[in-house]
Amino acid sequence: MQQHVYKSVEITGSSDKSVEEAVQAAISRASETLHNLRWFEVTDVRGQIDEGQVNYWQVTVKLGLTLD
Amino acid sequence: MQQHVYKSVEITGSSDKSVEEAVQAAISRASETLHNLRWFEVTDVRGQIDEGQVNYWQVTVKLGLTLD
Amino acid sequence: MQQHVYKSVEITGSSDKSVEEAVQAAISRASETLHNLRWFEVTDVRGQIDEGQVNYWQVTVKLGLTLD
Amino acid sequence: MQQHVYKSVEITGSSDKSVEEAVQAAISRASETLHNLRWFEVTDVRGQIDEGQVNYWQVTVKLGLTLD
Amino acid sequence: MQQHVYKSVEITGSSDKSVEEAVQAAISRASETLHNLRWFEVTDVRGQIDEGQVNYWQVTVKLGLTLD
Amino acid sequence: MQQHVYKSVEITGSSDKSVEEAVQAAISRASETLHNLRWFEVTDVRGQIDEGQVNYWQVTVKLGLTLD
Amino acid sequence: MQQHVYKSVEITGSSDKSVEEAVQAAISRASETLHNLRWFEVTDVRGQIDEGQVNYWQVTVKLGLTLD
Amino acid sequence: MQQHVYKSVEITGSSDKSVEEAVQAAISRASETLHNLRWFEVTDVRGQIDEGQVNYWQVTVKLGLTLD
Amino acid sequence: MQQHVYKSVEITGSSDKSVEEAVQAAISRASETLHNLRWFEVTDVRGQIDEGQVNYWQVTVKLGLTLD
Amino acid sequence: MQQHVYKSVEITGSSDKSVEEAVQAAISRASETLHNLRWFEVTDVRGQIDEGQVNYWQVTVKLGLTLD
Amino acid sequence: MQQHVYKSVEITGSSDKSVEEAVQAAISRASETLHNLRWFEVTDVRGQIDEGQVNYWQVTVKLGLTLD
Amino acid sequence: MQQHVYKSVEITGSSDKSVEEAVQAAISRASETLHNLRWFEVTDVRGQIDEGQVNYWQVTVKLGLTLD
User: Fold this and answer.
1) Buried b (16+ CB within 10 A) or exposed e, K53-67
2) Which chain F residue is nearest to residue C3, measuring alpha carbons?
3) Is I9 near chain D, with CB under 8 Å?
4) What is the pLDDT of residues J7-40, one digit of tens each?
5) Quick check: J37 contacting K, CB < 8 Å?
6) What is the pTM assigned to this prediction?
């Protein structure tokens, strides 16, 4: 991180494939309204089960964006 | 939770009666500007004391709302 | 606690009224199959929101039962 | 909190009715010997079970009092 | 989550490929004896190393199942 | 740990002598009904006091057993 | 805290001098768009190093503002 | 625990022999001035090293005493 | 730490200048009634904001004192 | 784990593809100088964002190696 | 602790007898290559089970050594 | 952070003036033998008290260095 002021927001994305795709889904949706997204940190990995199979993944990320 | 993208916000509500009423106060105020509130998680229960009595309760909740 | 061997199980109960009622719901259901329940510890307080109102409370408890 | 020096003490109160009443029991007992109690924070919610019913609640609070 | 009573169990699955496959292994084995599995939460990601390569992944999940 | 599926259970044992003996008491009791116990992790060390002396130790362990 | 509804936001400020100055930088930037900032809590203290010297401090604060 | 009001205090005891003896040292010293000590919880286990040997153990316990 | 019995107390001090001065304020006030203070550990750094400026710092410390 | 003495080191690896590849990158680099690496535990999953896309993953692992 | 610069390392020792002996095993092995070991802190207590008996204890300690 | 492999080490520095100076002391000592130090994270702030005054500060930092 460079010498900026950052704001953090918490977003949960989902995917029926992988943790990585769920994180990207969260970032893609957030970047529609938030500019200057710089970093993320995974804070929670959950999911739904249907008939003994992972139905989809739900991954919560803290996203950091520069304010200046 | 269904397969959505969620955003979380942190709100503190208060009540002179109960934990439950303080949570509802936080949700009521948040729902004035935030739509699609779906779930909450209590993260902190505090309060103020006046002359040996609970004066009011202050309960912090993380609120989840759908972005799509 | 007296000098016993204890087992802990984690149960989530729900109620549309209060934290207390959700805890009792968890204990009532658990006591149908588990005997000798002795103590509980609240580990999570969450809930669902519908149109700006708490729809119901979901409270997770760790329940301790004696094995001997 | 105003610009004071505070001391914190940890007290556990109990009640057969509710979390709120157990917190008040802790504060009432503490205020017999401690003056200037200002705030509390709930740190633990436990209880005893008797025949599948919550027998009583035990709630631990950190109490803050002004020293000056 | 709907208004049910849930039980949580903790299972560790393993895979030589990925975190996702290790989670599915845990769920598949648990669903042989536990019905109504609904959700999971990843609580630990570990693994074994052999000659500088990840030998296999070991992922611990908390699994939630409906009791009613 | 080898490449198995594990289940974890939480048991509290007690002893008037030592932490080690309380852990063994928890394992001995659990092994009456659970086979294939492989590892343990101490998660809590508590105890009861009587007239200024440790009356007995209560140690909580998470026990891991292979399911396959 | 008085009997209000509060919202919390997470901001990271930086300074090449001190923790205190980095916190003030976060608050100053946040107060350009957020009114009624009332309290802060430091949640993370990090920084960058250049040739064996602290280059700048990065301090994350949770900021509380009144909504009413 | 029965239906009492409890106070908790934090004490660190030491011993050159064992964890158990350090806990007893903390309780013995505390019971000189505090009556009605009922339970303890170990919160920290540390120690000093001298020439590659444990010199002494320092164990911190939270002690619970009845106030009524 | 040498081989003593220690007691810990939790005090919050404040300062309009710095974290360091708030810690010293807590220690100075505590040492009016508590002798043999030996060490401290910072457990919380908060503060109040007034018109976009840090109004004062509130720092909570755990203070250790020898009992013997 | 067998009856050895282990040392733990903390390494962060990165990958533009996946969590798994970032872990392997950390292990591969560490095994250039450290022999007898046996196990890992993921302690942090972060990453960098560039124009609304995950640029690369940064995964921190604790690595265990036998000393004997 | 005196006014030194310290480094911390994390070591796991084992013993088939006790927690104390496992800690000493970790310290003894570390002191073969590290001089000036001064203190330790227990961070994890685990172990292996064989046929319903504790086979051996595995205790992880953070060791502090002076660098100057 | 750029796309490197990092190693983290834990160092405690001290100062009789401030948190900032204690962090710099830790970094200065570490940089005598470790090159490529890039970032730090404060994990513990403690200190020693002498006659009601802070005698010196002891601040523990996790230091990140690039391995490549």
Assistant:
1) ebebbbbbbbbbbeb
2) F14
3) yes
4) 999 999 999 999 999 999 999 999 999 999 999 9
5) no
6) 0.96
